[in-house]
Design brief:
single chain; alpha/beta; Rossmann fold; 9-stranded mixed sheet; 7 helices; globular
Length: 238
């Protein structure tokens, strides 16, 4: 199969558990490190799927690569090549497909429960699960593009995930590993120190709860990645 393209926008926000998942199944993937100066591909046809990770920037920032990414997402969707977004990645998908990204009423930093919607699309992706504890680090939120179905919500952010055909966009993070949590707590120390609210945890709380929540998070991630990958395996082309 053609490789999965994984877009990294910040050095500490790589594919994490997704890389482990793909490697364990011998699924080819390639990293496009926007943060290190890699250029956005001119087309989507060389890939079985496109995955967009998180980042500290906003999709509304005037950055030279954002418009190229939005064009690429629209092309992939038009070609029925599945796209998957985590946090910033989900916001990029939303904006590319006509949604809006705006400030969330409150910051979310750390572990927090999300509810799985009671609809057929959500059951198809999540099975019998009705909620799980996800990891969060964001101050903005996306709206749902036309035709999308909401599959996740939370008390601190109404839109935590949606599905549009083969495409999955998440506001929360399911790709986390213990190493990533340590790195984020280090680079985000100043933001943690100045943030406040009911959905903001300390670095100590995030680290302490990792052992409790990571296994369950990876179970959810594996199910979602398996479902998404089925669409990638059926992408157009040889």
């Amino acid at each position: 199969m053609k490789p999965i393209a994984i877009f990294r926008h910040a050095a500490t926000e790589g594919p994490g558990y997704l890389a482990e998942f793909l490697d364990a199944r011998n699924i080819p993937w390639t990293l496009i490190a926007i943060d290190a100066g890699d250029t956005v591909p001119s087309g989507a046809s060389a890939y079985s799927g496109l995955v967009f990770m998180g980042g500290t920037m906003s999709v509304n920032d005037d950055l030279p690569w954002i418009e190229s990414v939005l064009v690429l997402i629209r092309e992939a969707v038009a070609m029925d090549i599945p796209v998957l977004g985590h946090c910033l990645g989900g916001q990029l998908i939303s904006k590319a497909l006509g949604g809006a990204v705006s400030r969330n009423p409150t910051k979310e930093i750390g572990w927090g429960e999300v509810a799985i919607a009671d609809n057929a699309v959500a059951r198809d992706w999540f099975g019998d699960a009705r909620s799980f504890c996800a990891f969060h680090w964001h101050g903005e939120t996306f709206s749902l593009p036309q035709g999308a179905t909401a599959v996740l919500s939370g008390p601190g952010c109404a839109n935590q995930g949606y599905v549009l055909g083969k495409h999955l966009a998440l506001q929360c993070h399911i790709e986390m590993t213990a190493v990533m949590i340590e790195a984020w707590c280090a680079v985000g120390a100043d933001e943690i120190a100045t943030a406040s609210g009911p959905y903001v945890q300390t670095a100590h709380e995030m680290r302490a709860q990792a052992g409790q929540h990571l296994h369950g998070l990876h179970q959810i991630a594996a199910r979602l990645y398996t479902k998404w990958l089925a669409g990638a395996l059926n992408s157009p082309g040889p």
